[in-house]
# Entry
Amino acid sequence: MAVCYEQMLANSIKSGNLLNTYFIFGDDAYLKKLYVDRIIDKVVDRADVFNFLKFDDNANLQEVYDAKEEFPMMADKKCVVLCDYDFDDASKADFEKLIELLSSPVDTTVFIFWCNNKSFDLKKSDKAKKLIAATEKGGGMAAQINHRQLSDLRKMLLDGANKRGASFESGAADYLIECCGEDINVLKNELEKLCAYVGKGSISKKTIDAVAIKSIEASVYDLAKDIFALNIEHSIMLLDELFYNRVEPTIILHSIFTVFIDIYRALAAAEAGQSISAVAKEFGYGNREFVLTRAQGYARRLDKAKVKLCFEEILWADSSFKSFGADGRIILEELVVKLIYILSKGEKLDKNR
# Structure
């Protein structure tokens, strides 16, 4: 099973020597679409309804196969795109047809199987591995397009600001990535807003706090910061902001749980004498190593007894959500108070007090 990555795909397209089959997947939606669009534009005019055919997740694979096999009309090549077909739930016959689509190229057709919103864990998906093998067998390319490295994202932001006559203060570009995540679409949108806000000036962390829309993860880490600072008033205010932005209570709880998982891993790493980099690699944090570094700061103020009590309260909240007529807002507010009490006193809050 041979998987290619962004640079190999980019080189293939740039060379102009396109392959007949591409299987494109990964976790960066912006980059996947970028490369799919580039392949299409190299092959056909999108307005050419005879030679450019796109099928969605509801496609009949026999129709896709027929479209791929047909000769182009008054052109040298045609392009057939199958987007987001759910191969995990496909019947045996349909999955075998998809294998045939990838493994049997047609010289006059460029066929692209594009997982845009469809996601899977390559390590665990035997079907995905079979699709990759089929693509390779047919002389095509299976390309996994994931989020770029932190250094690449930083350079993109710095260059983008410079082109607009603005600049980032030291550390501010990295802070924007921490706040908004690694999705290039999101980062570009936030960069546009920030540059419009500062004009020819510089972008600081304060500017980002004032203008940028933080990801849920970043907002919950702000909430964690206030919880560890034992600041009940500001913690409740941040919860209000999350509810105002219509974030589901279950998503907030899941994010809080994730923060404490990060903290537990950082705490365990310190006790075992392991570096944060080693732990980040072991658990697949990728570019998000800064999450564990941040969690390490919280972990220094904890011990395993407090962490255990915090997890018990988080599990209580999760169980409470499943009760009939549960009010998610009240449960989360109560959870925040309980967590702050544990961090302050080292014991659970007695409701009779």
Residues 200 and 253 are 40 Å apart (CA to CA). The longest helix spans residues 249-272. DSSP finds 16 helices and seven strands in the chain.
